[in-house]
Here is the input.
Amino acid sequence: MTEPGHHRGGEQAGRSPGTQRTHEGETPATPLTVLVVGANGLIGSAIAERLERAGHAVVLAMRHVTEDAGPGRHVALDLARPCQDQWMDVLRTVDVVVNAAGIFRETDGASFEQVHVSGPCTLFALAAAAGVTRLVQISALGAHAQAATAYWRSKAAGDACVAAFPGRGVVVRPSLVFAESGTSTRLFLALAAQPLIALPDGGRQRVQPIHLDDLLDGVTALVEHPDPPAVIEAVGPAPLTFADYLRTLATQMGQRLRVLPAPAWAVRMAVRWPIPGLAQFLDADALRMLEAGNHGDAAPWQALLARPLRPATRFLAPGARADVRRAAHLRVLLPTLRTANSLMWLVTAWVSAFVYPVQASVELLQRAHVPDALTLPSLYGAAALDALLGLAVWRPRWRRAAYCAQLGLIAFYTLVISLWLPEYWAHPYGPVLKNLPVLALIYALLKLDAPDGHRPR
Here is the structure.
């Protein structure tokens, strides 16, 4: 796990971390070796990159080190499964630990208690024993022991272990983080790209989003700071309502957004039966966190950066706004097209099996040279296959295969009709000609509708 030749930058120079602030891209007076936990996540990977650009040596810690992990020093470190001896080997070679690991939903292999509490607390205790001089914990704004959600309460419990660290421990509590590649930001941009949306309570909840660059600069400053605060809120320059935040994003994309209050029954339905793809946001905990608001005091973070914070009105770079708008529209169009595709196959299966006259279907199959003994099995087998293809697009692992099968099946049906039922090409309703745009749409889904999987938070 350890690698020869690594040493503690602070100890080598005989000074504590951060004796002199540096600008990005400059070599710090005392280069440090920093262990970034959760380095394959959105925030963790961005912190690691920013620290490297600031001149520090970074050790990238993640649950599983894969072949495509990229350059640099990588170590396997799973907070849900502590391995004290291996962790100590790594910790003895670093000056600072930055914990950016976190989950927003519990799974069978990772609970809030494991990832936010017991794992980090074990790590912090081992770091103290190994002589690590500083911890930086990426927590969450709103975390406290009596918070409304288990996520917030678990974050607060992990923060308490930072307070017990004998060296310098810093708890960073970010508000909503704007990052174009982030899952939540992509959702907000997709909402903002719509002409009309309904939000709980009309979106009057107060938020204070911070741009990812401002978060990264602040974390880098905390790693280098000679006397950092114990707890600090990472927020944007000013609070605004959630509706106004979405309107601000819409304006930057050249859109106009109208917000209506969502009826209470619709909110309850969305929480109980969330739309596929939005389940990680539309649950009871997410609603409680939104209702609680997410804002704080911007002055300490701005003082840490020694420059103005970026307002939400300037989150999108002017040159990227057209691309962001197209991507936002696509994120809404894809699930819409997927739903239409699924309904087409499911309704076709229902009509074929239960609505259209069986004798008429048998006659068509006979004209297509299907043997009499196979006409009914072919009819109901084809209906079952249609139903399976309509359902398969909702399983991420099956989605690509389902689209390929749909393309092949439609091409096969078109060939059969062309050979034995050519009159349908001249039908005034164009039942065969309509296969062409359907094929084009399925092909577009095949290329654009990436399987849903784990994404950085």
In short: Residues 1-7, 9-21, 452-457 have pLDDT under 50 and may be disordered. The CA atoms of residues 1 and 86 lie 7 Å apart. Residues 321-355 form the longest helix (35 residues).
